[in-house]
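ok trying this again, last paste got cut off
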Amino acid sequence: MCSPPIWCSSQLTDLVEQMQRAAYPADLRLPMRLVEEFVDAGRSPDDFTAAFTQRLRETEAGGKGKRSAIANLCSRARELAKEQDGLR
């Protein structure tokens, strides 16, 4: 393996290929809601970041609540299964 500043041609080729892949335009599609709420309204990227972070927190909180509810349901189902086994 070669080390800088003397580069092997294969390393240089790999680096150039990586740069070319990074330079190709991405297939980026913005949701219209984002465009309407932030771009068209002239709001700053900081506003977008704050709103995105808030929505993420709300989504996580909802997910935590659902996971907790499912865990409670599973726990209760196990309890009922044990009770059923005891009745047999």
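PB: full thing came through this time. Residues 67 and 73 are 10 Å apart (CA to CA).
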